[in-house]
Write a structure and sequence with these properties.
Blueprint lengths: L1 H13 L6 H4 L7 E2 L5 E5 L4 H6 L6 H12 L8 E4 L13 H18 L3 E5 L1 H8 L4 H4 L3 E4 L2 E6 L9 H19 L1
Parallel strand pairs: 2-3, 2-4, 4-6
Antiparallel strand pairs: 1-3, 5-6
Helix pairs in contact: 1-5, 4-8
The structure holds uracil (URA) and iron/sulfur cluster.
Length: about 180
């Protein structure tokens, strides 16, 4: 049942034309990962590599995320990874409110099916969309409860690409997250 439902969201996303982003995308990018995942990671939107392949976090940012996960003892296969919007915005601009709202239902369905123990929002767009937050630099590393769900806030892996200090911060945060899960 679970698998079917995630599969059903996937097929809806792949053929979705509900917002403008469908016009410029090559491939829509549904969430991907373990159907029994205890943690769901949420990024902003697909980038060029993701748009090309149709899978989340497969480019440079994805490599950083995978490294941080592995260093914390979490394999990519054990988690579920998705985005606020499932199609790449032109020139990687930040998805606007209308696009986020139009795509929202897919994310909500993913979370409703997976019922993860922790929802990890990565970067300002996810933080703002799900928790109405801003200033990720100040708030990262924190847990937050909202509407009976437990969230963890961290930076976007893409931010670490040209900033070595942030590589360590992301790794620290993912470790904090994994430690909480083990308790
Ligand atoms: N950045 C994101 O926010 N999501 C991806 O899937 C890739 C890069
Ligand atoms: Fe549909 Fe979301 Fe893609 Fe817009 S971004 S076309 S709502 S899947």
């Amino acid at each position: 049942m679970t698998e079917n439902s995630l599969e059903s969201i996937k097929s809806q996303v792949i053929s979705c034309t509900k917002c403008e982003l469908c016009k410029s995308r090559k491939n829509a990018v549904p969430g991907k990962g373990n159907q029994n995942a205890e943690i769901v990671f949420i990024g902003e939107a697909p980038g060029r590599s993701e748009d090309k392949i149709g899978e989340p976090f497969v480019g440079a940012a994805g490599k950083r995320l995978t490294e941080a996960l592995e260093e914390a003892g979490l394999s990519r296969d054990s988690v579920y990874i998705t985005n606020v919007v499932k199609c790449r915005p032109p020139d990687n601009r930040v998805p606007n409110q209308k696009e986020r709202e139009t795509c929202r239902n897919y994310l909500e369905q993913e979370l409703a099916i997976l019922k993860p123990k922790i929802i990890c929002v990565m970067g300002n767009t996810a933080y703002n969309s799900l928790l109405d937050g801003k200033d990720i630099t100040k708030n990262r590393g924190r847990f937050l409860e909202k509407d009976g769900k437990l969230y963890f806030i961290t930076i976007h892996p893409a931010a670490t690409i040209y900033n070595q200090e942030l590589v360590q911060i992301l790794k620290e945060d993912i470790k904090t997250l994994h430690d909480k899960l083990k308790k």
